[in-house]
C-alpha cells in the first residue's frame, strides 16, 4: 500500500487494471490505476465517454474482478459486493415485477427490518426523491428519470456508508437534476457518507465534489485536485463566481488534454 494510506482511508486502489476480451481481441478498459479515497469525502470523477469510469466503479464495488492490481475497503481486499457500499449503476436494475414501494423496500427486507418500519422508511424515501403518489406503480409505468429516482431511493434504503454513483442524474431534466443534487448534498452533510460520483458534466463535478479527479483514456489520471469552493453551493451564484469560472476552465483543459 502507498504511504498516503491513513486510518481514514476507506478505499485504496493500487495498480488496478482491467482487460476485456471480445471476439478474441483484448480491450484494455483501465490500466495501472491508483486512487485513495478518504472517509467522508465527496469525490467526483470526470471523464469522457469510454475512458473507463464505469469499469472503475464496478471494480470498486466488487462486481468485477481486476485483471491486475488490488482494491481494498477499510484495509481489506474487496472480493465481492458489500452491504456498506451502495452502488447506483448507469443501467436500470429495478425489479420489473415489484412496485416502486416494493423496490425501495428491498434492502430493508433483506436486512430483516419489520414490515411496519419498512413501509414507513420506504415512504419517507419515496417522498424525498419526489415520487409520492407513485408507490404502487411498476417500473415500466415510469419515465426514465422517475426510475432513476426510485433507484436512488432504493440505494439509500440500505443506509450505505459509501455511495458509488455512476452518472445518476444524467438523464434528468435540469430542474429535477438540481433538486436531487441538493438532496444528495443534504444527505451527505447529515450522514457523512463517502461518495464517489462519476459524471461527464464539469459543472456538476464542481457543484458537488470536494475533490475532482479527471480521467483520460484507460483511466489515466490527468488531474486530481481539491475543490474548496464554500458550501452550500448554489448553481446560479457559482456560474458567476470567478473562482468557479477559473476551475471550470482548468477542468475543461484537463478533459481536452485527457482526450489526446
Ligand atoms: N463487458 C465489456 N466487454 C468488452 N468491453 C468492455 C466491457 N465493458 C466496458 N468495455 C470497454 O471498456 C472501455 C471503458 O468502458 P466504460 O464503460 O468503463 O467507460 P465509461 O468511461 O464509463 O463510459 P461512459 O461515460 O460512456 O459510460 C470501453 O472501450 C468499453 O467498450
Strand order of the largest sheet: 6-7-8-3-9-10
Q: Write down the overall geometry.
A: globular
Q: How many strands appear in the DSSP assignment? A: 10
Q: Mean pLDDT across all residues, rounded?
A: 91
- Major sheet details: 6 strands, mixed
Identify low-pLDDT runs: none
Count of individual helical segments: 8
Q: Level of helix content?
A: 25-40%
Q: Which value, in Å, is the CA radius of gyration?
A: 19 Å
Total number of domains: 2
N-to-C terminal Cα separation, in Å?
30 Å
Question: CATH superfamily assignment of the largest domain?
Answer: P-loop containing nucleotide triphosphate hydrolases
CATH fold group of the largest domain: Rossmann fold
**CATH top level assignment of the largest domain:** Alpha Beta
CATH architecture of the largest domain: 3-Layer(aba) Sandwich
Can you put this structure into words, describing what you see?
It is a single chain. This protein is an alpha/beta fold and 260 residues long. The protein has 2 domains: 1-84 and 164-260, Rossmann fold, CATH 3.40.50; 93-159, no CATH class. Helices cover 36% and strands 26% of the residues. It has helices spanning 53-60, 100-110, 115-128, 144-157, 174-191, 202-208, 235-238, 242-259, and strands at 9-22, 25-38, 42-47, 68-73, 76-77, 85-88, 162-166, 194-199, 211-215, 221-226. The strands form 2 sheets. The chain has a 6-stranded mixed beta sheet, with helices on both faces. Strands 2-1-4-5 form a 4-stranded antiparallel beta sheet, covered by helices on one side. β7 (162-166), α5 and β8 form a beta-alpha-beta unit. The longest helix has 18 residues, at 174-191. The radius of gyration is 19 Å and the shape is globular. It starts with 8 loop residues before the first strand and ends with a helix. The mean pLDDT is 91. Bound molecules: adenosine-5'-triphosphate (ATP). Adenosine-5'-triphosphate binds at residues 20, 22, 27, 29, 47, 49-55, 90, 200. Residues 20, 22, 27, 29, 47, 49-55, 90, 200 line the site of adenosine-5'-triphosphate.
